Amino acid sequence: MNKKHRIAVIGLGYVGLPLARLFATKYPVVGFDINAERIKQLNQGFDSTQEISEEVLQSALIKSNPLIADLGVDVSDSDSHVQVQETTGLYCSSDINDIAGANIYIVTVPTPIDKHNRPDLTPLYKSSETIGNVLKKNDIVIYESTVYPGVTEEECVPVLEKVSGLKFNQDFFVGYSPERINPGDKEHTVDKILKVTSGSTIEIGKVVDDLYKSVITAGTHLAPTIKVAEASKVIENSQRDLNIAFMNELAKIFSLMDIDTHDVLEAAGTKWNFLKFKPGLVGGHCIGVDPFYLAQKAQEIGYYSELILAARRLNDSMGAFVASQVVKLMIKSDIKIKGAKVLNLGITFKENCPDIRNSKAVDVITSLQDYGVDVVTCDPWADPKEVLDEYKIISHQNLDDLQINKGFTEKFDAIVLTVAHEEFLDLDFSASLKENSIIYDVKGVLNKNKVNKRL
Known about the structure:
The chain has helices spanning 16-23, 36-43, 54-60, 122-132, 151-164, 202-213, 226-256, 261-268, 290-300, 306-316, 318-332, 361-370, 384-391, 422-425; strands at residues 7-10, 28-32, 89-93, 104-107, 140-143, 173-176, 195-197, 220-222, 341-345, 374-378, 395-396, 412-417, 433-441, 453-454. The model is unreliable at 70-85 (pLDDT under 50). The N and C termini lie far apart (55 Å). With 455 residues, the chain is of the alpha/beta class. The protein has 2 domains: 7-224, Rossmann fold (3-Layer(aba) Sandwich); 249-454, Rossmann fold (3-Layer(aba) Sandwich), CATH 3.40.50.720. It has a 6-stranded parallel beta sheet, sandwiched between helices. It has a 6-stranded parallel beta sheet with strand order 11-10-9-12-13-14.
């Protein structure tokens, strides 16, 4: 097995870019993405996901492809790895020819669900086709995308074989190392999170493990099989989804009892083994999606998952619940609902992160609109164009557009904090509210004495 790793990372989003940048500190790396505009921005040193700073990205970028073989050698027709330059660094491209010189391909594309909550493996199929067009003997393809157990070997490998004409575990090999990126988290970066690894053979498992171990300072855990590694990832987010669902159910119960849920959790949290989860809006591309992958696979093999799907239904209901709570508070304050003006703070799926995928703040907004409320949305992290394209919602990115802390041209009947961006935490809302108004804190991060209710 050739030990001179030459890496191509397929998909340069929240997962792929940080990983490619990390590997580029020790290996020649080409980051590939079909989005030409994304590649253009990255080559200019700008990362719209804000996972990599301009300074760090600029220091990693190189201007020429480090995977290009010596002059006179065509790597696409070679049955074995050819001698290439030893340059380290990251070269970003949307040209498939630029990844032909790699011997390690790492797939970091998203794994979404469709409108019926069924797994959509299209990005995996397409990325596997892309790799199959340049795959050579002895190459290794490592998948990081979150999937249900069996997808790598039963769904992706056949595509690689068909397109490349090569034989699995004879001509080429695969591995699986589930991503553990936490978008917006500048403390737990990719190198500081222990990595699960696996391979299609014992030998390849060791190669994959050693590869990640060379850059992951937190260490690695070599799983016995690819299916075990796949299962370990999908239950991580399913477990969190279940725990938050319990908190959300408690929030609904305690609301009927007129008890502050956060006060209850603070008291219960004094016990050493109490799990400190909080109620909230569970969206994003991981926790709000991954449980459906496990439930779908379970159903295919004849088991209907009651607990996982019940948790999903409960968490998906929270946007409408928050809206109903806000409306009830407004009615109690004698605020006319139809035409009432409400300021919604936040539309990304989590705090201090620009990712708007599967945002449940949108459910709060649309549910309030169903009541006839006029909702104004502000989020300093979200790209207004992306929000408009994805959700048909106008979002203000600049806080000064709404003159927060200075008083609005038109004051609000209510403010709903749905995302705990740091920019929101110290704002003085008093000048922005009508005399008879309410503040609802979904995240439980504002001063308790200054809000009417917390989720």
